[in-house]
Amino acid sequence: MKHTKIFPILLLSAGMLFACNTPWLQEQNDQLKVLSWNIWHGGHSKEYPGDGCEGTIGILKESQADVITMIETYGASDKVADSLGYYHRLLSSNLSIYSRYPIVETYTFPDSIRTFNFGGVMIDVNGQKVRIFDTWLHYLPATTIVPTDSSEKAILAWETAGTRDDEIRKILSVLRPYLAQADSIPIVMSGDFNSHSHLDWTEETKDLYDHNGAVVRWPISLAMEQAGFKDSFREMNPDAAKNLGRTWRYGEETTDRHDRIDYIYYTGDKLKLLSSESHNGLLGETYTFQGKDFFYGSDHGFVISTFEIE
Question: So what's the pLDDT on residue 7?
């Protein structure tokens, strides 16, 4: 498939100077910490003007993530990049990527999949190239209304009535040549997939998390697995009954829902997973992260996975 390469564009001089002169940016490090977060309408929805974006940036800074894949960026891109002092690419109004390390190539696939849904970059981590892709699959049908009282066949028919399965097929198709190179140039693909995982809806969890007895081989996560990707959170936290890793809820009205729909996938021999964790604050309230309090401006949780580059 044809794809467009967009060569790196210099950041605003002040941002570039900040990035290049940040001491911890220049330190050699064999680890790569990736954070993925749907920040909900730029983190500054009209419901929480100012506080949401500031809280989001505060959490991002505190995380010390090397790479951030952001969803629902909507106008926050420059402010986030300037605040972090990171290199960044605004792939679309929806998707953006921030990197402590130089971005040396940008990937979009306009003939196959919209940049609103998918795009990526290549970064140079002290001489090792890594490809980072940001993802958003359609939110309908909504994960909160899975017909769990139906058969698995009926549930899968409900799921595939939307466009997510078609979107993931297109994405994996354009990734095929990069997947063939993954052992030399590893790939991290993360974002808001708006879909459940077959690793979560098992015999062990069928009576938990409002699954109501359902065991489901969800097609999006299966497609990722069959393409050679590993689910970093579930790899590090294999018992879904003990730790689901919930990443979505919207206010008190859905606090009974337990949904993991945001993921950090990876593939390639040069990446060794060291840790993966899920964080989920409550929209509009204070969230304590690493001992500090921040206003939580998103209806999504965020995932952080740390890799060793071998």
Answer: 36
Share of residues in the chain with pLDDT > 90 (%):
82
Phi, psi of 11 (to 5 degrees): -75, 170
Average pLDDT of the residues of the chain: 90
Secondary structure of the chain in the HEC alphabet? CCCEEECCCCCCHHHHHHHHCCHHHHCCCCEEEEEEEECCHHHCCCCCCCHHHHHHHHHHHHHCCCEEEEECCCCCHHHHHHHHCCEEEECCCCCEEEECCCEEEEEECCCCCCCCCEEEEEEEECCEEEEEEEEECCCCCCHHHCCCCCCHHHHHHHHHCCCHHHHHHHHHHHHHHHHCCCCCCCEEEEEECCCCCCCCCCCCCCCCCCCCCCCCCCHHHHHHHHCCCEEHHHHHCCCCCCCCCCCECCCHHHCCCCECCEEEEEECCCEEEEEEEEECCCCCCEEEECCEEEECCCCECEEEEEEEEC
The model's pLDDT over 242-260, given as tens digits with 9 standing for 90+, comes to 999 999 875 555 445 679 9
Handedness of CA 21, 24, 26, 32 (dihedral sign): negative
Task: Please report which confidence band the pLDDT of residue 270 belongs to, taking 50, 70 and 90 as the band edges.
Answer: very high
> For residues 240 and 134, what is the distance between their CA atoms, to the nearest angstrom?
25
2 or 106, which is more confident: 106
Sign of torsion, CA 144 72 294 63? positive
Token reading at 166: 């078609």
State if pTM tops 0.70: yes
